[in-house]
UniProtKB/TrEMBL annotation, chain A:
Name of the featured protein: Ubiquitin carboxyl-terminal hydrolase
Biological processes annotated in GO: protein deubiquitination; proteolysis
Domain UBP-type: 41-155
Superkingdom field: Eukaryota
InterPro entries referenced in this protein's UniProt entry, alphabetically: Papain-like_cys_pep_sf, Peptidase_C19, Peptidase_C19_UCH, USP, USP_CS, Znf_RING/FYVE/PHD, Znf_UBP
Family affiliation: Belongs to the peptidase C19 family.
Reactions this protein catalyses: Thiol-dependent hydrolysis of ester, thioester, amide, peptide and isopeptide bonds formed by the C-terminal Gly of ubiquitin (a 76-residue protein attached to proteins as an intracellular targeting signal)
Enzyme type, top EC level: hydrolase
Pfam family of the protein (one): zf-UBP
Residues of the USP domain: 189-521
GO cellular component, as recorded: cytosol; nucleus
Keywords of this entry: Hydrolase, Metal-binding, Protease, Thiol protease, Ubl conjugation pathway, Zinc, Zinc-finger
UniProt keyword Zinc-finger present: yes
From TrEMBL, chain B:
Entry keyword set: Activator, Chromatin regulator, Cytoplasm, mRNA transport, Nucleus, Protein transport, Transcription, Transcription regulation, Translocation, Transport
Record's subunit section: Component of the nuclear pore complex (NPC)-associated TREX-2 complex (transcription and export complex 2), composed of at least SUS1, SAC3, THP1, SEM1, and CDC31. TREX-2 contains 2 SUS1 chains. The TREX-2 complex interacts with the nucleoporin NUP1. Component of the 1.8 MDa SAGA transcription coactivator-HAT complex. SAGA is built of 5 distinct domains with specialized functions. Within the SAGA complex, SUS1, SGF11, SGF73 and UBP8 form an additional subcomplex of SAGA called the DUB module (deubiquitination module). Interacts directly with THP1, SAC3, SGF11, and with the RNA polymerase II.
PANTHER family, alphabetized: ENHANCER OF YELLOW 2 TRANSCRIPTION FACTOR
One Gene Ontology cellular component annotation held by this UniProt entry: DUBm complex
UniProt protein name: Transcription and mRNA export factor SUS1
UniProt GO molecular function: transcription coactivator activity
Signal sequence coordinates: none
Main subcellular localisation: nucleus
HAMAP family documented for this protein: ENY2_Sus1
Described function: Involved in mRNA export coupled transcription activation by association with both the TREX-2 and the SAGA complexes. At the promoters, SAGA is required for recruitment of the basal transcription machinery. It influences RNA polymerase II transcriptional activity through different activities such as TBP interaction and promoter selectivity, interaction with transcription activators, and chromatin modification through histone acetylation and deubiquitination.
Amino acid sequence: MSPTTVLKRPQASSASALLASPKTVKNSKPLANSSVASLAYGCDHIKKVLRSPAEGTKTKTNYGSAARVALDSSRTHAQTCVKCKFLITRTFLCMQCPGIYCPKDAESHSKENKHYFGIDSRSGHVYCFLCQDFIYDRALEEVRMEKEVAMEGSARKRRRLDDTKLSLKDLEYIEAHTTLAPCRATGLRGFINMGSTCFMSVVLQSLIHNPLVRNFYLADGHKPKECLRTDCMSCAMEEVFSEFFGTDRTDGFGPTNLLTTSWKCEQTLAGYQQQDAHEYLQFLLNQLHVTNGGNSDTKTESCKCIIHRAFYGKLQSDVTCEGCQNVTTAVDPVMDLSLDLRKKDKRKLDAPKSEGEMQTLQECLERFTNTEKLGMNEYNCGNCSGHQEMATKQLTVKRLPPVLCIQLKRFEHGSTKSSKIDTKIRFPMQLDMTPYTTRAKRKAKDGSTDCGPKSSLKGHGPYLYDLLNVVVHTGQINSGHYISFSRENGQWFRFDDSMVTLATEKDVLSAKAYLLFYIVRSLS
Amino acid sequence: MSQDTSLRAEVNRRLLESGELERLESLFLDLLRESGWYEDTKNTCTEKLRSGELAGGGFNRLTEEVELECREKVPEGVRREMVLAIKKVLEGMVEG
C-alpha cells in the first residue's frame, strides 16, 4: 500500500518524486562504470533494454500506450487485477505484455515472466522490479511528457522531473541573471472593462483578495471537473483564481465567462449598463453559497459553505413596549450591514452632519444600534394590548462574522428621482465592533460603565477587525465609476479595471468608501 | 465463500461505476491532509531518505520502513469519519 493516495496526475509526479528521490538514490549507488552515459538511463536494467534498437523502440511504444491509458483522466478510476480479480485503484500495467496487476501480483508476475517493468496506472511512472524502485529514464520521460501534453493540452505549466534538481552552479547562475518580477501569480491582475462592468470587477477583487475565499478556491474547494452544474458561478470563479494565482500573466483579464454566467443566473444583470456593486455582491455571494453545497434553507444555521463561514452574522432586534415593558426579540441572519448616512429623524432633510464635522463609520454604527422610537401605528403590543402605546426598537449585532461587510447607503431612490450622498465618511484601519454587540448594549442598559468605544490600539480582543477591502464609487449616480482597494501581503493596491497600482494607507483612508470589508484580527 | 467473493466484486463494481469510490478516496485524501497526516508522512519519508538509513534503497525499501508507523498515525477521527462515509454508501446500495 502506497503511503500516498494518488488522485491527481500532476500531484502524483511530485509526490512519488519526493518519496523515491530518484536522482539522489540513483547517484548514490556505486556505478559499475562511471561513464556519463549510465546516468542518462533510469537504471542499469532499463538501459540494457533501451540500448538494443529493436527492443528499445518496442519498449518505448509499449510505454507510450500504457502512459496514455494511465494519464487519461476520463478512464475508469480502478482496474481489475488479472490474477486475483480484485478491483483496485493502484495497479501496475506491465510494460511487456497487456497484463494489469495489483502490486502483489505484479511482483510475482515480474518474477515468473521476467517482465521487469511496470507502469503505475495513476501516474504513468515506471517501476523497475529488479531495482525495487521507480526509475526516471530520460527517454521514457520524454514519452510520458509528450503523452501528458497530448492528453491534457498545454494549458497548465508542467514541471519536468529532471528539472527538480539543480547544481550549485546552476543556482548561482540563475540568481546572477534574474530580474525579480514581483506581482506575478500573486493575484494582482486587473479586469478588463467589458462595458460598465466595473461594478463587477470591484466585487471580484474584494473576494479575490479575501484570504478565506481565496484559500478556499486555491485549495480546490470547488472542483470544476467534478461539478455537474451548468452555468456555475463557482466554476467561473475558480477559473479566475487559476488565472490570477496560477499563471505569470499581468495583463488585464477579460471576465467573459463570469459575465455570461452572471447573466444566465440573473436576468436583471443582463446588458451592459452599470449596476449597483452591493447588489452584485449579494447576488455573487448567494451564487457561491448555492454552488458550494449551501443549503437553500437559510434560516437554519447549519450551512457550512465558505460564504456562510466567512460572511454569516446575526442581528438581534428587540422591541420594547413602553406601556408594559414587554420585550419581543427576533434574531435575523445577515451577510452584511447596511448603514444609513442620514439621521433617522425624518424631519431633518439636510446633509448628514450639519456642523461640518466629518461623520465617522463608528457614528453610523452607533446610530444603527441605537434605540429608536417606533411610530404611533407601527407596533401592537401582544401583552398589554394597548394599540396607542409607544414602543422602541433596537438592533444589535448578536453574532459577528469573520469577514464583516458594511455598506454605506449612499444611494437613495425616491419615487421621482435618485440621488447620491457623496460626503466623505471616515473609516478606520482597525475597527472594534465590541460596542455594537448585543452583549455590550445590554451591559450599557444595565448601567455598566465599561461599554464605550474601546481603543483598537490595544491589539487584541475577539471583536477587533482590520480593514481588508474598500469599494469606492466615484461620480454621479448613473454615470459613475467603481474602483477598489485591497491589501495583499501587507501592501495596499488600487484596482481600477485593468490597472493595478500601489497605494498608500493614506490613499485608502481618504477614499469615499461605499463598501467596506473588515476581517477579524485573528485571521488578518 | 464464493458468494462472498462475488458479492464483494459486485459491490466494488458499483462503487466504481457510481463514482463513489473516487469520492470516497477524495474524501479520504482531504481528511488526511486536513489532519496534518499527509504533511507529517511526507516529512517522515523525507527524513528517512535523507538519513541514509535506507542504504540507497528505493521506493520499496522506504515503504517497508515507514508503512506500519504511518498507518498507525492515521487519526482516530479520520478513521471514524471514513468508516461512517463508507457505511453510508454501502447502506445506500442495500434494499430494505
